[in-house]
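Quick one: structure for this chain?
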Amino acid sequence: MAKKVAVLAVNPVNGMGLFQYLEAFYENKIPYTVYAVAGTKEIGTNSGMGLTVNGTIAELKGHEDEYDALVFSCGDAVPVFQQHASEPWNVDLMEVLRTFGEKGKLMIGHCAAAMMFDFAGIAAGKRLAVHPLAKPAIREGVATDEKSVIDGNFFTAQTENSIWTMMPQLIETLKA
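Got it. Here's what it folds into:
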């Protein structure tokens, strides 16, 4: 039976990245639930499209054991994360990332996902693909210039344009 995935979508989310995961999971019958990293289920993409997702990060908090994997789908909210780190949904985000990571679950993401995993304190010693602009922020993990990196339970891609390079191994792992 396929592993169950919690997908986190920031507001606004990079639609190209998010939909690559969702389409691959749908096509491969991998169950997933999408949670907005926001105060509401109504979010947008960085191209202006509105989305209503399954729930909010607050609804995921405390239910981490129901999932085998977590996807952090990056977007335009991340460059201003520091200015909004005290918002309830961002506090919940860091707690959820930390909980998933400490439980050894699959941690998946692109762009600044590796930076967020590092901020949550769960990426120590892990080789990570990360957006070039986020690379200097990596402190505990090992930032690379690779298009994607798989290191144990961490699957990271440099940008939405390189998610496809890790997708075959990710799907195989999620279906196992």
